């Protein structure tokens, strides 16, 4: 059964994963959704593929459970601070495989990026193990720092949503989900169509054709969301560079992924120049497998009790919570106690 009203966020003890927890809790509260926080590990070599470096000195399953409990208690404190009573879970197994399997059961999974190794590196490090490219549900990847290592501040209210729009099935679905997300926040939707540098937009006939294609993709969106404010942007150039620039003045960027060709082929290749590695705002990825299997998702869901175990935890102490806040938000010192 698919958890239609639940967001899943993965944590591993890194600050990047706690920042992802903050984003997931903020969105869950806004949308009236439940939040589940999961910590994944595998034995006997879990330390190399799962927990953050702080949690690698473990000798057995009991130690792993204890450290998972500590990780989850910190993540729960972040959710509690926003008024979200999150359920905490553990799952054993290789994270890159486990999260793909878990994605059959959720409408949205959230993970952090640019942590020191750990979960983010395992799930985003290569094309073959990229969760956003192979998941069965949309994935939000939350950045921790920019390319220069500067800690990023994320807004708790979404006002501008950018969508990379192309004519693939995944690109069209991304446009629809981006519109739905923007509408829920009463935000502006910026539909961005990137065309090759060889396309002569200064030619009125060519420009009209490109604009007509974008208008056609937006027809369904405008019908479903007549009050949504939509901005249309058409540019020539590189899709990754264009959407990375868009991440600087939008609260989230939405893209489709088919893993090859089209826009997604530019985003999910073996180079480190992809959008996920350079965006300074969260990226919502709509995977090919999600689009292909969307109609039959309920039939393909995995029994969660075969994968996860609930691990109730108490909220971390206030001083621990404050230390996490300082490490995930550069503006934390400006907030009132």
UniProtKB/TrEMBL annotation:
InterPro entries: Universal_stress_UspA, UspA. It comes from the Bacteria. Pfam families: Usp (PF00582). Residues 6-143, 160-287 form the UspA domain. Signal peptide: none annotated. Belongs to the universal stress protein A family. This is Universal stress protein. It comes from Bifidobacterium cuniculi.
